[in-house]
Specification:
lyase, tRNA processing, 20 strands, flat, iron, TIM Barrel, Flavdoxin-like, disordered C terminus
């Protein structure tokens, strides 16, 4: 019966198929009519809105009415919220120009603010300009020897370091719109408008967007384009005001058809610009040729591509670099291309200096704001030194061991290294090697120049906003030296003499080695604290992460840990956690700890170093602090002689200490530095016969530095600074 009803229904549908077809056709037609009507209505509304927005003389009552073609009444239609004019002036010319420009902008009914660079803290405030829809104008003068004026010195210094610091990244100032007018004198041809050009380049490197090409005023009336620097400025000002009005109306800059090499920078080419920015290619090579205001210079053209022609490279990488060099050789002119190479072939031993031509070959290293010393050493001002100068807290060594971060010098007597670690934040711009084959500088010269360069960098903070006068004075006397800047310090043949010199100057020594030179570790004289980097716990993972040059790297690694266990002074394992690489080897790590018997174990999450052809690490490989804590807790359970002692949350770092440093229930991980200096002097005076141990120069650890404290390792005497517009995490060491 059911089957019969089913067939009856099918027959009924077939007999009435005409009505069904008609109903479906009517529904489709109705849907098409509704869609057409809706689209047409939206188009009319959009055209009406555009007409009203683009016409300053729109009828009264229109919501989008403009005032002088610059500002709209609806918040969502405000393209420019105001203008902020920064000036760096020595004689008052830039200041006068800033006030004149402000008056002109005020006549356009736009808010305007004039700011002296000396009264502005870029570290605190510049990133806050990115979401404000404010146009930033920089009027900067070039002073003696191509340096910024006194009032602009700190602003330019910070901008330079941020542009070369991977922790800020290429999008730190994304959204900031700016224009630069430089003031200079072409009589000083070698330094003409250097500051303006640098400010322009550094802003662009941090992701800011130019609203027009940089302009340059010339005090030399014979070479000035308009007869005087005042006339140069007036010509630029007129063009700037015109561009500003166009931006207020929401207009995009049209292509002039005069693009250099036919490479247009119109909005449709933004993806091309983004890729250039990622490769580090200078926009100056492709910038739009804007008639009277186009500028160019040899030092601006040709930033690094495919590793850069002035980078420090390895022999196996020379093929790609030389291919690139052949294409660029005409553009280089008479500039020589010199490389530091890895000495793995006997025929290359004729190269004697680690960096052959410092002004050229050292650019890859100095771009990280190092100060190169001689032919193989370097010094750099740590960001924690700057932080503590301003009362914003010290590094994890301050929390764990009581160093004064503002009195710490970060240096190295050897830029060369025996590893090519995937997380190296120098992106392998330093040379690599398995033994010392270079010309050697004397340790006295290295130390003298290191201290001199360090003090000169400290002096630049005089007058900087927020810097504490007492700490600035203290910082001029170096008290600690972290031999961990780059490379392998223990490779330096005179490392013992260098360490002795540090101690003779009452400077404590924190030496880091990559555990590939066991004999050198055994022969090393006492240092305040000796570190070994334990980046992995198995042969396979160590090869993947550290990429060592030695074929017998694993045996060297184990022998180095055994050599460490023989030391009587303080020893430390440094574990750098890389998610998906080395965080699942707890038992193997515990076995290595029993082998080397370190006094302390520092466990730190890897710091993201930015994109690099030398590494495929991403932010996904950076562990959260909670993940580091969990790893440390699980590791501590496997090593009964150790406990978690300290924490520095800001550096994503924890300290595991041997229980022998827990005296009468209190942790004593800090160092009595005066006592250490006494002990090491007695040791040297006795010819090495009088020894001492790590227990002889300990000091009590304050409660705020302990694991589980409310401060989580931040010194309560300082004030932690939190960025209001923190687009990315730039913490780390």
């Amino acid at each position: 019966m059911d089957t019969w009803n089913f067939y009856t229904g099918l027959v009924s549908l077939w007999l009435h198929r005409f009505y069904i077809y008609s109903a479906v056709a009517f529904g489709i037609s109705l849907w098409i009519i509704i869609q057409f009507t809706t689209t047409k209505t939206k188009k009319k509304v959009t055209e009406h809105g555009k007409k009203s927005n683009g016409n300053p003389a729109a009828p009264e009552g229109t919501e989008d009415k403009l005032a002088n073609g610059c500002a709209t009444l609806q918040a969502k239609e405000i393209y420019v919220a105001g203008v902020k004019i920064f000036y760096g002036s020595q004689t008052g010319t830039a200041k006068r120009f800033a006030k004149g420009l402000a008056e002109a902008i005020t006549s356009l009914n736009l808010p305007v603010e004039v700011v002296s660079m000396g009264d502005y803290d870029p570290e605190d405030c510049l990133s806050e300009e990115t979401p404000s829809r404010t146009i930033c104008v920089f009027l900067v003068a070039t002073y003696t020897d191509g340096q910024p004026t006194e009032s602009a010195a700190w602003f330019c210094k910070w901008l330079e370091e941020a542009a070369h610091d991977f922790r800020y990244g290429k999008t730190y100032l994304k959204g900031l719109r700016y224009a630069v007018f430089g003031l200079g004198n072409s009589v000083y041809v070698d330094h003409y408008n250097t500051v303006g050009r640098n400010v322009d380049r550094w802003l662009w490197a941090l992701g800011a967007t130019r609203i027009m090409t940089r302009a340059e005023g010339d005090c030399n009336v014979a070479q000035s384009k308009f007869g005087s620097i005042e006339a140069d400025f007036e010509a630029w000002k007129a063009k700037f005001l015109s561009r500003l009005q166009a931006l207020c109306r929401g207009e995009k800059k049209p292509c002039s058809g005069k693009c250099k090499k036919r490479k247009c920078k119109s909005p449709g080419k933004q993806s091309k610009e983004s890729s250039d920015r990622e490769r580090g290619t200078s926009e100056y090579e492709k910038a739009e040729a804007e008639e009277l205001f186009e500028t160019s210079s040899d030092e601006e053209a040709g930033a690094e591509e495919a590793g850069g022609t002035n980078s420090v490279v390895d022999v196996e990488d020379l093929g790609n670099i030389m291919s690139h060099t052949k294409k660029a050789k005409l553009g280089l002119g008479t500039r020589r291309i010199l490389y530091t190479v890895r000495f793995v072939f006997p025929e290359l031993q004729s190269f004697q200096e680690m960096h052959l031509n410092p002004p050229l070959a050292s650019e890859g290293v100095s771009s990280y704001c190092y100060r190169l010393i001689g032919s193989h050493s370097g010094v750099k001002l740590c960001r924690w030194t700057k932080s503590m100068l301003r009362g914003r807290g010290g590094c994890y060594k301050h929390t764990f061991y009581g160093i004064e971060s503002h009195r710490c010098m970060e240096a190295t007597p050897s830029l060369a290294c025996a590893n090519k670690c995937v997380f190296c934040w120098r992106h392998h711009t330093n040379p690599v090697g398995t033994e010392w084959r270079w010309k050697m500088d004397q340790p006295e010269v290295i130390l003298q120049e290191a201290i001199g360069n360090h003090q000169n960098m400290i002096k630049q903070f005089k007058g900087v906003s927020g810097v504490k006068a007492d700490r600035l004075e203290e910082a001029m006397a170096v008290k600690h030296c972290a031999l961990s800047l780059v490379g392998e310090p223990i490779m330096y043949p005179e490392i013992n003499r260098f360490v002795r010199l540090l101690h003779q100057h009452s400077i404590s020594s924190f030496l880091v080695t990559n555990a590939q030179f066991p004999d050198e570790i055994r022969s090393l004289e006492p240092v305040t604290q000796l570190y070994v980097s334990v980046d992995a716990s198995t042969k396979e993972s160590l090869k993947r992460i550290d990429r060592p040059l030695f074929k017998d790297f694993w045996q060297r690694f184990l022998d180095s840990l055994k050599a460490l266990s023989e030391k009587q002074q303080r020893t430390v394992y440094r574990l750098t956690l890389v998610k998906a690489w080395n965080v699942d080897e707890l038992k193997a790590y515990a076995d290595l700890i029993s082998l080397g018997k370190p006094d302390f174990i520092e466990v730190k999450g890897v710091t993201y170093c930015g994109e690099s052809s030398a590494s495929n690490l991403t932010m996904a490989n950076v562990p959260w602090h909670e993940e580091v804590v969990r790893f440390v807790q699980e590791l501590a359970d496997l090593i009964p002689d150790y406990e978690i002692a300290c924490e520095h949350e800001h550096s994503n770092c924890l300290l595991i200490a041997h229980k022998k440093f827990k005296i009468n229930g209190e942790w004593c991980t800090w160092i009595n530095y005066d006592r250490f200096q006494e002990l090491v002097r007695e040791h040297e005076a006795s010819g090495g016969s009088k020894t001492f141990t790590a227990a002889d120069y300990t000091a009590r650890t304050p409660r705020w530095a302990l694991f589980g404290s409310r401060e989580r390792g931040f010194d309560p005497l300082d004030v932690r600074y939190q960025r209001k517009n923190k687009a990315r995490d730039i913490s780390g060491c």
